[in-house]
Amino acid sequence: MTFKVTILGSGSALPAAGKHHSAHVLNVHEQFYLVDCGEGTQSRLMRCGIPLLKLNAVFITHLHGDHLFGLFPMISTLGLLGRRTPLHLFGPGPLNEMLDFHLRHFDTQLPFEVKFHEADTRSYACLYENKVLEVWSVPLRHRIPCTGYLFREKTPPLNVRRDAVERYGLGIAQCVAAKRGEDVAVDTESGPLLLPNAEIAYRPYEPRSYAYLSDTLYSAKAASLVRGADLLYHEATFADADRALARQTGHSTTLQAAKAALAAGAERLLIGHFSARYKDDEAMASEARTLFPNTEAAVEGRTYAIAPRTNPLKC
Questions:
Q1: What CATH number is associated with residue 149?
Q2: pLDDT of residue 172
Q3: Cβ neighbours of residue 41 closer than 8 Å, sequence gap 6 or more
Q4: Quick one: pLDDT at residue 315?
Q5: Does residue 178 belong to any structural domain of this protein?
Q6: Per-residue pLDDT tens digits for 167-194
Q7: What does the radius of gyration of the chain's CA atoms come to, in whole angstroms?
Q8: Among the options 36, 66, 240, 281, which is catalytic?
Q9: Statement to judge: residues 240 and 132 lie in one domain
Q10: Burial group, residue 139, by CB count within 10 angstroms (0-12, 13-18, 19+)
Q11: Chain-centroid distance, C-alpha 134
């Protein structure tokens, strides 16, 4: 089952050659979720081969232009492409006012509905869920109200081991019970036997998670809320030598991003949202690796997959 993120933009507010503004797209079981929508995002989606019409929902962290200015042109393009299904849009409350203005004065005959859902930037709450995924808001510490997002795969249902079906001659009703997590009674030559569920059923893989924390000062609370993330994206706008500037502007440094990954017990750390003053992303990652070794600099156009951790007992 697919669980991967593609980096569309890794720059910060000031445009820089070879960099684009913030946008990631997450593919969960072939459902696509856009996180932030900086200027030029729709072009980046096309360049990366991700069809705009496949977007299920858009999540905006805050109302700074480098995270937002690509949204309204993309909505217009979706209309031109003939989208009919509703587009779910999540973000801080004032975003709804901007959306309303756009729909009243520009896209007056949009052929699909944009359904806005407010993300409370002060609370940890489940904003969206379907059969395979939950999305939670994560309060961040920026100059304006800002929320991160935690994308958490739901626990998959149990599977029944094929060897157990053959060994005990399990019928349909018994397999259904095993999938519900129940122990199963069977008849053997030695008499009735109650099979523990753990002997006949298994979890096909452990649920995965991706956390997006941008833009923010270091936040121990945010780190605790994304505890155990398989992949953590954390802004690292500044090198550690510029930590005073980071605090002044409401951003993090490389080492603060690494500190957050350690506090979160994350498996892997991606850093990005780099200031245009730095020309070497790998040097930024190297600095973070002094504290959190499993760190990479986000590379635009690259896809980072989270492979499922399968149960070794399955047969």
A1: 3.60.15.10
A2: 85
A3: 8, 9, 20, 21, 23, 34, 70, 71, 74
A4: 41
A5: yes
A6: 888 888 888 888 888 888 888 777 788 8
A7: 23
A8: 66
A9: yes
A10: buried
A11: 10
